[in-house]
Amino acid sequence: MTKALVFLATGFEEIEAVTIIDVLRRGNIQVTTVGLNSNPVEGAHNVKIVADKSVDEIFAQEFDAIICPGGSPGYKNLRKDSRVIQIIKNAYNQNKLVAAICAAPAVLSDAAILENKNCTIYPGMENELINGGGKPKADNVVVDGKAVTSKGPATALAFSLKLVEILAGKDVAESVSKKVLANIL
Q: Which residues are bridge partners to 5 per DSSP?
């Protein structure tokens, strides 16, 4: 079974995190939510989620995808955690899928995996991508090799379905899309 890690840092964007987790699980992808510190992890809008594991309890090499929801200060907490940056770098160097939405593509930029890659981020934050050598695009979801980025809360469903398509196949993604009445694939 395909396995995905979804980071949950204090201040994560709830719409993004829950959409990613739910849609990937509907696509038969085994999702493990990973908190950086204490449990439960509180989102940017005071929604609390109990992470499945702590970052210190996982073996990152077991995952096929590493995914970062955005939110503020969630993305800031991800980017300042050296464990997160190293996990992203290692996954990318092992040709695994690395994805981020909203402000979290800045974390991928910090991990130096967006060099010469097409990518997107929350509007107004494009310099975060440029600083890491990325090539900002206006699209809601951008796939460049094993890097997938998206703009923000309203694009979370399209982003999540694209991840399902990449990880489980187009037929699975279309099936999930139909079941949730998305009509966006």
A: 32, 66
